[in-house]
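Hi R.,

As promised, here are both runs. First protein below:
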Amino acid sequence: MLTRAAGMVAAFAAGLALVVGAILVVRHLTAPSKPELPVIPENRRPSVESAARACAPLSVPLLAAQIDAESGWRPDADSGHAQGISQFSPATWKEWGQDGDGDGKADVWEPRDAIPSQARYMCHLYDVVKAVPGSGTKTGATRLALAAYNAGPNAVLRARGIPEILETRGYVDKIMNDLLPKYRKSEEKYQRSEAKHAGRAAASPSDPSSAPPSSDPSASASGASPPATRQP
């Protein structure tokens, strides 16, 4: 009788363990995973890094966050009134579009033209919003410049701040509160990785000329003179 009772207890315990295990597995599979940080596409990085040097307020994370919000990095993005990776309207592109890739024409669909044009226009907008209340801080000036990029500088000047336009306010908040912090972290991670790779390359030079001189006694016995030191 005791043996039968013990078997029933053991079976119950085994069944309970299976149920608990299944619950833990389900929780693990359904638990929200930590979102990955956005990254700058490698083929766009040279343009973004170069464009970020256009003026002091700009940065790589800011331009990247703005491009993400504008087009999701799609060069063929077309909203109907704005075009390309940086979403220029035809009128704004006519005034601010520039030839960034040196092919002799300014093409709104070419990211190597559009991204430096975006930076150049943002630098102009930073100057425009200096007259608007709230521009005295770096964050305030950036919010106003982004609003001017989205709604137009005249709208910001008339409103004496960010216009009461739902799209514009959502655009500024998305960049400043969501995308910009993520791209800052992403860029920090990228720079750490680059520094690590550079350190490894320095520690393990592949240039044969950096190898230590041979200790083979036959080298001196042959009468061959050592190579001359390269002058700077």
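And here is the second one, sequence first, then its structure tokens:
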Amino acid sequence: MEEKTGRTNTVLTKLSVVGDLLMLQLVFVVISLGILTIFPAAFAMQRVVPDAISQDRPKLMRRFFREFRWAMKRFWLPGFGLWTGGLMLAFGISFWAYADGPARIFALAVLIPLTGLILGLYLSGLAILPDAPETATMKTLFRSANLFLLRRPLPVAGGVVVLLTWFALASQVPTLFLVGSGLVPALTAYTLARPRREKTSEDVSI
């Protein structure tokens, strides 16, 4: 009986986590329609995702909007710059992918690695955001993200591959943007930020 109750509680907890994450995604989509609010909304989501997963803190939406106001005051202008730069990179890659001549190869050889680097820095920035102080600025976040990337280049590269794969799928199935445009980067960065579990004697087989 106790085992059955424990399983029921586990299932209910997981459903609660899924519900909270989907609610955050819905709010993110609505807020992001303002364009200037896309990155502040993404930053706010990243700050509360650990709470949604752990279920440690109630009133998740209240905290999300508090974090959104914080991010909007500090990061709306750099966020707009990121959005503009991302749009230019996407246009540049799309243009040169269908162009002809040797310049196409050179342009793509520059733009594709540059895009991967920017995505890696973005994921690293999201990964360190939950622990960033209230006084954080874009400059301090960039430094911390760069340090995170240098310390964990391979996991971040894997995160970039996940993100690019999801973008490729979403380009074919646009409805995926509604359910994952904020959650996929947030959960990828959350996974990157989790401390690596140390091996114990139980992990070693004889």
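A quick note on the second one: The two ends are 36 Å apart (CA to CA). Let me know what you think.

Best,
J.
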